[in-house]
Amino acid sequence: MPMFAALLAHGPPLTTQEALSGVFGSISLASWIFLLVPQLAENYKQGSAEGISLAFLTVWFIGDITNLAGSLWAGLVPTVTALAIYFCFADLILISQCLYYNFKNTQKSRRRSTRQDGVEQPLLGRRDSSNLGLPGSHRRKSSAASRRRRASSLPSIVEDSSEFEMKAWMKNSLSIIGVCIVGTAGWAIAWSTGVWQPTPLNDGSDTEIALGAQILGYVSAVCYLGARIPQIIKNQRDRSCEGLSLLFFMLSLLGNATYGAGILFHSTEKEYFMTNLPWLIGSLGTMVEDATIFIQFRIFGNGEQTTAVV
After folding, report:
1. Does the pLDDT value for residue 244 go beyond 70?
2. Which of 3, 20, 47, 169 is the 20 to 30 A CA-CA neighbour of 188?
């Protein structure tokens, strides 16, 4: 903390509102940089990408492309443009990973189905000839034994799943705190070294954005708002969030909240607000959908409890 205070002491003077705008913007930037890493890691760990909707990723990718085009057309600050370029590349990496796992697992499923078709008939005949007990007796015994095993193991399964859930939430919360610390420290260093400076407010006459850039901004906002809908529908249809990274959506919520806060703390003047309205809609609007996915995580879980109990 003394080092952090020393960095602030050597920086140029600025208001509390400007400082908060800078801090929130830096935290948002850190959230976006790390955003896709948890889902990439989750897909790799599962060896599958069945949990995430390709429609979600595709619409989001279109939103990032229009966001990049709009920022280039409007001549926004280099950090915004650089972040938009980074997102397009990161989207392509995640989409490519999902396509790879989907293709790989489809091929495995086809080979497994072919092998099963080849051995199914002999196995069926052997099973019929060896059934010397009363009709249905083996099935009843197996079913009863299975119920006893499930009943005896149910308390330990519930305890294990509760402990796993607690550890997961703690791990994710620590990750969020870490991202906030990294973002705040990054802003303090950038400010003290003069890399970051408060953006002066203008009367709006020289900051007008071209109509085409504004249209692209609104298209991007619509894509961001609509992208999560296929994922929400998929979770509801499957009644599971298995294969999804909760941290991915937590970072998305943090990034959108701090991005909107950074804009609003900078200024609430009408001209500035209207200029940034498409990006505010895209960031703050998706927070409602992220909250919906959090509720689905709470209701359905990630599928591990269901798999363990059945």
Report:
1. yes
2. 169
Predicted structure pTM score? 0.75
**What ranges in 75-210 are assigned the alpha helix state H?**
78-129, 137-192
**Considering the domain boundaries, does residue 131 fall inside one?**
no
Query: Residues 6 or more apart from 189 whose CB is under 8 A from it?
Result: 7, 195
Question: Average pLDDT for residues 263-271, to the nearest whole number?
Answer: 78
pLDDT single digits (tens) 29-44: 899 899 999 999 999 9
Residue 88: inside a domain: yes
Where do we find the tokens 């505010």?
Answer: 280
CB 308 within 8 A of CB 157: yes
If phi > 0 it is left, if psi is from -120 to 50 it is alpha, else beta; for residue 301 that is: left
Number of domains in the chain: 1
Q: For residue 265, give its domain range.
A: 14-109+207-310
Average pLDDT, rounded, for the chain: 77
The answer to the question of residue 150 being in a domain is no
Mean pLDDT of 193-219: 70
Q: How far apart are CA 290 and CA 109, in angstroms?
A: 33
* Contacts of residue 287, Cβ cutoff 8 Å, sequence gap at least 6: 253, 256, 257
Q: Is the pLDDT of residue 274 over 80?
A: no
Does residue 74 contact residue 127 with C-beta atoms inside 8 Å?
no
Task: Assess if residue 250 is contained within a domain.
Answer: yes
Contact (Cβ atoms closer than 8 angstroms) between residue 251 and residue 37: no
pLDDT for residue 179 is more than 90: yes
Stretch 7-23: mean pLDDT: 71
Q: How many CA atoms lie within 13 A of 309 on its CB side?
A: 11
